[in-house]
């Protein structure tokens, strides 16, 4: 009993008329979650099965799609439980864990997109050196680093959070994100400084690196023949679309959520749902349709299903 009294509970206050539409919310979100798992897993399986897709570019795509499934799994099960619950609450320790996993995977996506940009840069700008630079060992290092670096850096943030005194118990959101800072009685200077450092290290610097590599690709392509430009556009466009989409959503999270302005509750709900519904489905849609080799195998799979 004493243990229960010592547990700090956080109320998730971003829900809109959940009592009235709980079953509708549940059905929609459950359907989207199943779609996210199926769409991402299908393309990952195609990449694993077909040997001609065992190239660095497709391996990075598979990693990105696995990251999307993990990202969704961190949010959806708790979200579905909340829709059917009378009170939308979470313990502070569980909230910190969700915050940690959410940002670890979000920043891992930036680093995976950086690895993909570098892969395209070497392939297009240094084709003769490509087999040497993008060896299997180097690809493994890029993949491990993309998940391990954010996990280690953000673990420090969790440690700094744990001992902070809380004066508020309501978050303006559906899940635990950076708005967890607003629960503290006095904003921590150490946390703010470390937050800026982390944002620069795993957010801004990878973004600048990606912009640099694609600028170089654009310059090389502009100086080359028409066929070369077409090939470069075909391989780079899907990555750029995914990058732009993800960057817009992260910008919303960093600016609007951290500012905690009087943002309308409905607008906040819509933007949050975009982050957790639209983005994890956007990646497999873009890569499934725009990447020629994946699209070819996907059409073959659909044809087999129809023939049976």
Features:
308 residues, mainly alpha, Rhopdopsin 7-helix transmembrane proteins, 3-stranded mixed sheet, 78% helix, 3% strand, globular, disordered N terminus, disulfide bond, membrane
CATH level 3 topology: Rhopdopsin 7-helix transmembrane proteins
CATH architecture: Up-down Bundle
Q: What oligomeric state do these chains adopt?
A: single chain
- What is the beta-strand fraction? under 5%
Lateral arrangement of strands in the main beta sheet: 2-1-3
Distance between the termini: 58 Å
Supply the CATH class. Answer: Mainly Alpha
Shape: globular
Total strands: 3
Low-confidence stretches: 1-6
Mean pLDDT across the residues is: 82
Q: How would you name the CATH homologous superfamily?
A: Rhodopsin 7-helix transmembrane proteins
State the helix count: 10
Q: C-alpha Rg, in Å? A: 21 Å
H-E order: HEHHEHHHEHHHH
The number of domains: 1
- Describe the largest sheet: 3 strands, mixed
Structural class: mainly alpha
What portion of residues is helical? Answer: over 70%
